[in-house]
Amino acid sequence: MKKTTLLDYDSASHFGEQEAQAELLEDALSSGDARYIAHALGIIARARGMTQLANDTGIKRQALYRALSTSGNPTLETVVRVLNALGLRMKLETRANDALAEA
Fold this sequence. Notes:
Helices cover 61% and strands 0% of the residues. It is mainly alpha-helical.
């Protein structure tokens, strides 16, 4: 039987530009999936440099990796600190706007 070799893949290498990072985070937020949001923040954090992010947030690098993974569940405080350190912000809209746009 022939062995298959899998290569490590990190999608962070494809999100080096701020525009791509913003689109990824926007998509994650619009999904409403907490795991996707955490994962998207993790991708952006790795693209920009996890060590620098740890220094900027005061959160240990290992804790950031854990919190910003698909199985992570970061606290709101962690999310806010990460967003601030990355120079990003969230914008909220009411769902009523969605209903009006569809009408």
